[in-house]
Amino acid sequence: MDICHYLAVSYRLSLLSMIILSYISLLSLVALQQMSKLKYLDFPYNKIKYIIDLANVASRLAVTMDFSYNQIDYVPPEINQFYYELYYLYLNDNKLAYIPTDILRLQYLKRADFQRNPFLADEINAIKMRFRSAIPNCILTV
Q1: Do 92 and 73 form a contact (C-beta atoms < 8 A)?
Q2: Of the candidates 81, 77, 72, which has an alpha carbon nearest to the alpha carbon of residue 51?
Q3: pLDDT (tens digit per residue) in 12-59
Q4: DSSP of 2-64, one letter per residue?
Q5: How distant, in Å, are the alpha carbons of 29, 32, 69, 71, 117 from that of 6?
Q6: CB contact at 8 A, 131 and 106
Q7: Of 55, 57, 59, nearest to 75 (Cα)?
Q8: Hey, what domains does the chain have and what are their CATH numbers?
């Protein structure tokens, strides 16, 4: 059984505001849809390939999302659903080749880390320019 599924089916655990799961070979975010109080989603050092399940996360109050050191190669447009409260986004050390413009709708981002992804040099420059223009107060590392 997927550990997130186990956590989600427990009534008491549906009230969690923080979840940190590392080094457990977590593959997806399915079953987070019942955790409506989550503010801190920390899933570094797993084997997550897809975060498409973000659309199913019931909480729109996420302050921190840490998906560093996974195998993510795509950020879905649903990331912009967290535009109001998301302050910290860590997607470093994944397999991203580009950053979608939907991330630029996260106007309250204070920190975004995209280091050590296989970006082309032109894409790195484009990311920096887009962030400076759209979210100038965000500390960006690429």
Answers
A1: no
A2: 72
A3: 666 777 778 788 777 766 556 666 777 888 889 998 888 877 766 655
A4: -HHHHHHHSTGGGG-SEEE--SS-----TTGGG-TT--EEE--SS-----GGGGG---S---E
A5: 12, 10, 23, 23, 31
A6: no
A7: 55
A8: 3-141 (3.80.10.10)
